[in-house]
Amino acid sequence: MAKKVHVHVNGQAILLEESFPVEYAVLRYSQKAFDEIQKGLAYIADAKGDPIGEGGAIFDGLEIQVLPVKR
């Protein structure tokens, strides 16, 4: 059985398998947020606000944010 980890997306705790990529955490958080990322209206950032890739690895305690793209 795969190890479960807690990831926080915009402050909300999400429980996922450790092998899942970042995009699954966002999808579990919100379909709307996931769709906005796919449309280029938002992006995923780490706790410092630095962009991270959708396919990045997750780990226990990871904090990510979904932020709007500034135009």
Biggest sheet: strands, sense, closure? Answer: 4 strands, mixed
- The arrangement of helices and strands along the chain is EEHHEE
Multimerization status: single chain
List low-confidence stretches.
none
For the terminal residues, how far apart are their CA atoms?
A: 44 Å
Shape: globular
- How confident is the prediction overall: mean pLDDT? 94
Number of helices: 2
The side-by-side strand order for the widest beta sheet comes to 2-1-4-3
Structural class, from secondary structure content?
alpha+beta
- Approximately what portion of the residues adopt beta-strand conformation? 25-35%
Proportion in helices: 10-25%
How many strand segments? 4
Gyration radius (Cα, Å) is: 11 Å
Description:
The chain is α+β, with helices and mostly antiparallel strands and 71 residues long. Helix content is 23%, strand content 32%. The protein is built from two helices and four strands. The chain has helices at residues 22-29, 31-38, and strands spanning 4-9, 12-17, 42-46, 63-68. A four-stranded mixed β-sheet has the order 2-1-4-3, with helices on one face. The longest helix is centred in the middle third of the chain and has 8 residues, at 22-29. The model has no long low-confidence stretch (mean pLDDT 94).
